[in-house]
Amino acid sequence: MSNLLNLILSKAKCSKCKLRSKARAGSIWIIGKYWSLGDSGGLAGCSNKTCRYLAFYGDGSYTVGEFVTETLMFDTSRTSLENIYIGCGHDNRGLFTGAAGLLALGRGAVSFPSQVNATAFSYCIVDRDSNFSSDLQFGSGTEPADAITAPLLSHPLYPTFYYVNLTGISVGGQLLNLPQSVFDINPSIPSGVIVDTGTGITRLRADVYLALRDAFVKATYNLTSAGGFALFDTCYDLSLETLVSVPAVAFWFPGGKSLVLPAKNLLVPVDDKKTFCFAFAASNSEVSIIGNLQQQGIRVSFNIATSVVGFSPNRC
Q: Phi and psi for 163 in degrees, rounded to 5?
């Protein structure tokens, strides 16, 4: 796709789905009565002209419904795309509350970029207090010229994810004392660092998280501790604070490039009493995931053709 398209997603509940065509097996593999949806973690199959799918996610959420084709319309350009494979969900369980749907952006055969042959796209998730809408752009020219870039990597066991070549994390300008191996991909096990919009807060492998948390706590000794809350183990009572200073947290990439996270992306409110928690958590494996809360206010650009990801703060 050479032209820039802005995709505006509107809510569309799938109470009654009209089947437009059966799923074809061009880029999916037959397993018994179902097809594997590439490497996207799901199954689809057809019987009596009815196609069904099952998609499941790492947090235990899943969606079951009809696997159909549909015509999508881009509101800003009046461009329509026909025969796009979508799942019309009727049984959606887990962390889908308030969501109109999911748009697959990974490297799988039935992801949206793959279906429309997009070689580049970018998105910007506005921060939680913004009055503006987040946006998603497809096509060339989506990456700002001043983007902080890093190589995209691949994991042989999980080829649909976007892995980034992270080299370090710093707190207050000081790099954490961690070996490069904690960020590297081990091809035989789940490992490496993924950039993902489907994960809320950033999850880091335990040793990385503990080093980051301890450095952050040391630099915020003047803030009143509030214990833990749900999955967060480090929270603060900011009810008496009018202005809070926190140390800068930055992700580092090859070539000495660094992405300093916005201060608002470091602490997340968890109640109406001004309790804020450190917006990171430990993962239960050697995989680290840069989640969407830490991406807020940053344009994230993916150039699939050149395997490069770019980060552009304040370019939403």
A: -90, 140
